[in-house]
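Methods — Computational structure assignment.
A single polypeptide chain was analysed. Its primary sequence is given first, followed by the predicted tertiary structure written as structure tokens.
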Amino acid sequence: MSGSNRRLPEGRTAWKKTAVVAVPAVLAVGALAAVMAEGALAASFAVSGTSFQVSSGKLTSNGLSSYVQTDRSVDGKGHPVALLGIGDATLSDICQSASVSTPLGTVTFKLTAGGDAGNVTASSLVIDGEDLVGDARFGTAEIGRDASTLDRVPDVHGDKGKFGLQAGDITVAGVRSHAWSATGGNFRLRGLKLSVSLDGKKCF
């Protein structure tokens, strides 16, 4: 029986077939990380049809601005999000994971950085999130400010008459969020690790 037709014993993985799916995904995300590191990624784009998890042990920033907007996927479907603009962010660590359907089954894409390797940093970090969970401390806070007048984070403001909020120096411990997109400039991802695995563990 030829090698291409030989059956694998139960419980064994067809690594060559898995690589066909995994390698393009890793290369694509690696390129994305490189572009983000150069600050060249646009803050507005059509999102995929899959939200993802973001978590960090601790996030600190010199400011935060937020307002509600709608992200749209290529099929035109809208996803209501709270846009969170975070100026000059420092994270003790970061984890991002997403579940992706493939012909081989559900694949978990996971990116981690920071921890023992050192802090993760980014300027003008923008997360379009469905939620944000954590223990937060705000230096100052302005809730209900017109979204068009937000000025804590450069270029992060909404339409006139829309609800917005902003805060001064912030610290958030135990960060967890479900997001549709994340962009930023001058990302420094110390100890970056990318993995693609079948039914792998997500961030939380």
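Note: Helices lie at 15-37.
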